[in-house]
Automatic annotation (TrEMBL):
Pfam families: HTH_23 (PF13384)
Gene Ontology MF term list: sequence-specific DNA binding
SUPFAM superfamilies on file: TrpR-like
Keywords, comma-separated and alphabetical: DNA-binding, Homeobox
Upper lineage: Bacteria, Pseudomonadati, Pseudomonadota, Alphaproteobacteria, Rhodobacterales
Keyword DNA-binding: yes
Protein name: Homeodomain-like domain-containing protein
Length: 52
């Protein structure tokens, strides 16, 4: 799985199922600031924003 898809998978429940970002980050064992940064990049650039 590519880096962008791994990052998207961590955000997917928040984006597609309405799970809170806090709950999604806990499930993915991810710091909230990192998830917020990835979410912002995803909203601006789509999957391309999750590559870096």
């Amino acid at each position: 799985m590519g880096e962008a898809m791994r990052r998207f998978a961590a955000l997917q429940s928040h984006l597609e199922e309405g799970v809170s970002l806090v709950a999604a980050t806990r499930a993915a064992d991810l710091p909230i600031p990192t998830a917020q940064r990835w979410l912002s990049r995803y909203r601006l650039e789509g999957l391309d924003g999750l590559k870096c």
